[in-house]
Design a protein that fits this description.
Elements lengths: L2 H36 L1 E8 L9 H28 L6 H29 L4 E3 H34 L4 H4 L2 H27 L4 E6 L6 H6 L6 H34 L4 H30 L7 H25 L2 H19 L1
Parallel strand pairs: 1-3
Antiparallel strand pairs: 1-2
Helix pairs in contact: 1-4, 1-6, 2-3, 2-10, 3-4, 3-10, 4-6, 4-8, 4-9, 6-8, 8-9, 9-10
Amino acid sequence: MNNHQVSQHLLILTCLIPIFLLISLNQLSYVVCRNHENQSGEVTFILLGFSEYPDVQVPLFLVFLTIYTATVLGNLGMIMVININPRLHTPMYYFLSHLSCVDFCYSTVVTPKLLENLVVEDRTISFTGCIMQFFLACIFVVTETFLLAVMAYDRFVAVCNPLLYTVVMSQKLCSLLVGASYSWGIACSLTLTYFLLKLSFRGNNIINNFVCEHAAVVAVSCSDPYISQKIILVSATFNEISSLMIILTSYVFIFITVMKIPSTGGLHKAFSTCASHLTAITIFHGTILFLYCVPNSKSSWLMVKVASVFYTVVIPMLNPLIYSLRNKDVKETVRNLINTKLSCDKM
């Protein structure tokens, strides 16, 4: 993939993805408004967040503000670095630029409202706002799940078929894989949101979380949530198992290939190629699987909140750090940018 091809890819996807999102949002807005009219009276939600711990509200605000600032700078910086350095115009970094974009968007959907609720007494969020937050967060979670799987396949081709890498990971395939990840995220989110809107709500509803997460929203519904709960269970299980199968299969073949490498240098190079991605996968899927294992009881809500904070707020900050700290080309580009900036300031 050369400089022109990468720029062309990014331009096409940058144009198409907002169009798909706008179409989805327009359809969803129409459904939300229709559904809102059918609810009995004005429906609002109150996000409890961490309000049961008033003494730590300010420290938490400062911590989350710092994390969000690092997330924005890290992910947007990663996208800029990948576009600036021609040596990073490869399929791996093409996927990484989209992972950074998804992390930035995901964190921006969740964190500002969390920060607001830590410093104001009024923690309400409108019915439409809550549904939109769930819809957008769901898109980016599902997209990230499959982007990580796509990146595993990319590493498999790079390690197991290095001579055919540029042929296999063609311009067309890279665009197709990224587009499919976004499209599936939108499709899953629309389906889950549709069945969530089938539920009835009345008056003020207290959500025991800092985000409009499915289980917490369903818990305050006035109607039977059985179908909605089953739909999200099937969807989440399918997404998790299918993505993990792609990842595990890719790394089994990578491990077999690496074990056949005779030289220590080749072994180290193959390991360093996959180390950052393995770290990101372990943190992301480890947190999600932990949430699956938490029992659904009142005593477990704090654990759910902490785990939710980790994968909605902390992980988007960690990904650019994981990929930049272990990568010489990224660090070199950042150093050159800093040196150029310092030289300009001196002049």
